[in-house]
Amino acid sequence: MDILTLVMAIALLLMAIGITHKENGSLVILIGLTLSVGAVIVRLLLGGALIQTGIDLFRDCGISLLLAAAYMSIRKLGDRAYPFMILGVISLILSGLLLGTRYVWKSIWPQNTQSVLVELGPDDSIVEIEEILDEYADRWERAFPKVTLSEDIDLAQVYLVYVSERYVSEMMNVLRADLENIDHVELNLDIVLSPPIPGQLVEGASDNAFGNDPYASQQWALDAVQAHQAHSTLKDVRPVRKARVAILDTGVEADHEDLQAAYVTGVQDDTHGHGTHCAGLAGAVTNNGLGIASLNWEGRFIEILGFRALSATGQGSMEQISQAVIDATKAEADVISMSLGSKFSEAPRVLINAVEYALERGVIVTASAGNSNEDAISHFPSNIDGVIAVAAVDQNLVKAEFSNTVGSLSRPLAAPGVDLHSSYPGGSYRSMSGTSMATPVVAGLIGVMRSMNPYLTAEQVYKILHETGTEIADTPQVGHVVNARSALEHILGRGI
Predict the structure, then answer these.
(1) For strand 379-380 and strand 342-343, is the pairing parallel, antiparallel, or unpaired?
(2) What is the number of other CB atoms lying within 10 angstroms of the CB of residue 139?
(3) What's the pLDDT score for residue 496?
(4) Which residue numbers are catalytic?
């Protein structure tokens, strides 16, 4: 029962009092009539779904008429109470019929549903806005039920609300007007992978392969980041521990021949292929006589974790991606690799909060810059403060024609991203291009760095990669190209 129901009840009660009292009866009836008309007008002005407004009006009238009838009965005026009682019962029946009609309508003619992310204040409860949600929403649930208030007061208070597209804007406006209980409201927007850019196998790309991986000589990127030289160093190094590199993508084919020895947890399938390709670039077992090479020499330095931030169609919502960030963080990932993103005019707050959740717990976050050949200043999540944003270069160490630029972001870096050969579902291998491919190259290098010194901070890692990276003509636009040999020797030589 809300305040308008209470006002209507008082109004009808006053009218009943006026009817049963001769003195000043007309005045009391007039006051009651004025209040009831005012309550009806306010209810109509509040707007909302038409059927819901009818349900509320008939409910208010029914309850109020029955209360007035009860008062008259107490005053032993049953003949006058009878019409009030009949009208009250009819009103409640009509309210119930409309309520049933709404549910039948939704079941027979379901409408497209949009999800909305609603963040409550730290001290607020979902109960405080249930009246609004009952009017507009189909259902709601906590977006991140495993995050407690003590962990993060923002993420713990986010709810996922499902509402018909017809009422989305109206509901969001009503919620935003509730400044007492609501901190933020935003659509649960989707990120969709750009169509994969086919690559080609570069024959005879390198004569410097140090390991015995069959495709290593076709991986020009290994030369570009001096990975072969890094291999010669890593063969004699024992890490402090294996670092965990989390691939937040379409999944990972965990039993792929070149990944299964390094894969430890998470989703174990990938019907899309994008995630498996990224996983191989980050941490395929190297010098195992199979497939490709990464910096994960003999699988001693990196463990691969896979979290499904994107569906089999390459699409993922803000909530889904944020949940993957949270899950990777709780799984004690050292590095998160996100080869995904999109341009948004307004910052998706829930994704920013999720990334900050990871950064605050010591996770190093890398993200692709995007493939639109524009400034990544509005490209999320690569533009979030503290994230290492990765652009792509080609075999000539020139910005890839598709790559966004990252010079305006806080932590810009570049890596090879054209014609990169890597693992693919079905135990196969494929060449692909994109900043999506450049990002796991960087994430894998950071993983090896963390395996040698688990206490490296994100700031230290970026500083090392920036200072030891290769400067190219396009560095002002894309940052330094990572140099694995120089970065690892820097750590080994200085013991940072």
Answers:
(1) antiparallel
(2) 10
(3) 46
(4) 249, 274, 436
